[in-house]
Amino acid sequence: MLKLTYTENGFNLERLAQSLEDWVTTRVILSLRAGWHICVEPSTASFLLPADLPGIERLEIEARREDSEIISVSACDVDYVEISLRGSWVSASSECDEGVFVVTMSDRTEFFLFKLWQQAQIVASCVSE
């Protein structure tokens, strides 16, 4: 399972071994016990990766192998590709901009996407220094 945590400063991507159903169930139970509002709904999430990142072509091949409803890779412009995912949005309300997006794909695609995202973060941190 991939977990994208969206905050006011950006987002973080994690790969979890836990199943989507177990993670959501635990989150709902925690919210109920703590008295927090929780909204879980089907949604989409998108983020950009550098188009020249080694492995982008392979990700496109993996995306075609996946159910096309779950992941798509589209050229955004010369410098970036857009990764779009279909999964579940978990937040305090359906109108909230901050929350967690979770999605399940094949282990292979999840691992590969996560590694590409990590590489993009390393490149971005080197450029900003």
From TrEMBL:
- Which InterPro entries does the entry mention? Alr0857-like (IPR054664)
The source's domain of life comes to Bacteria
Which protein are we looking at?
Answer: Alr0857 family protein
Origin species, per record, is Floridaenema fluviatile BLCC-F154
